[in-house]
């Protein structure tokens, strides 16, 4: 899952981003609405976490832009306002969910995962293929009943490949969906991560390289 976190409380935004990265999410962070609009115009995000009261363009304005863009990005609005009227206004702008500050990180994660499942087509919280079972909520992976110890990036790559349903996924698409904007597209990071993931998945081989096309998961 690729997430944009936009909040002018820098410490909060950075802490949220770091926590989400530990859960294998690709996260970009900005601290104002103008920067949020810039990122949204360039990258595709599954979910945007927006503070309502950002400088420059407000979270409301960013949310309105997302709703009118047709990009399919889900919006989780953050605010210190706790009144029903404030929540209704935010949802009326096109937000998919609303969370008041302060909040529990576990609740934020649960809401993000629920929003991601609303994507089209909707994806189940547990993905299975060729004996591999990936549980997004529990952040676990097994193959033929045996637990696999994957790094956050290996988990993210496997998630993307499972979502593809056996279709070939290019290295560029993996980089877009499993890494944030700081990833260097000219490094071997995707190939290296796929290589270690293939080794951890074990035999018989299930993760295949398709020459000049990308990678495919399936027997």
TrEMBL record:
Residues of the DNA-binding region: 124-219
SMART domains in the record: REC (SM00448), Trans_reg_C (SM00862)
4-aspartylphosphate modifications at: 51
Domain named Response regulatory: residues: 2-116
Acetylation listed as a keyword: no
Domain OmpR/PhoB-type: residue ranges: 124-219
Pfam family, one: Response_reg
Keywords assigned: DNA-binding, Phosphoprotein
CDD domains in the cross-refs: trans_reg_C
Name by which UniProt lists this protein: Response regulator transcription factor
Organism, scientific name: Plantactinospora siamensis
């Amino acid at each position: 899952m690729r997430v944009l976190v936009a909040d002018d409380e820098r410490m909060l935004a950075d802490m949220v981003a770091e926590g989400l990265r530990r859960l294998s999410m690709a996260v970009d962070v900005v601290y104002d609405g103008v920067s949020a609009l810039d990122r949204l115009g360039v990258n595709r995000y599954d979910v945007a976490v927006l503070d309502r009261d950002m400088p420059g363009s407000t979270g409301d304005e960013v949310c309105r832009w997302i709703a009118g863009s047709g990009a399919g990005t889900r919006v989780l609005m953050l605010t210190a306002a706790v009144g029903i009227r404030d929540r209704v206004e935010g949802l009326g702008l096109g937000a998919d969910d609303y969370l008041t500050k302060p909040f529990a990180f576990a609740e934020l994660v649960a809401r993000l995962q629920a929003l991601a499942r609303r994507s089209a087509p909707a994806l189940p919280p547990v993905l299975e293929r060729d004996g591999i079972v990936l549980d997004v909520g529990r952040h676990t992976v097994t193959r033929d009943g045996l637990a696999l110890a994957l790094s956050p990036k290996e988990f993210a790559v496997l998630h993307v490949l499972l979502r593809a349903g056996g279709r070939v996924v290019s290295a560029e698409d993996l980089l877009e969906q499993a890494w944030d904007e700081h990833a260097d597209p000219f490094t071997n990071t995707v190939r290296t991560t796929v290589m270690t993931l293939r080794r951890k998945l074990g035999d018989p081989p299930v993760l295949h390289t398709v020459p000049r096309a990308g990678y495919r998961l399936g027997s």
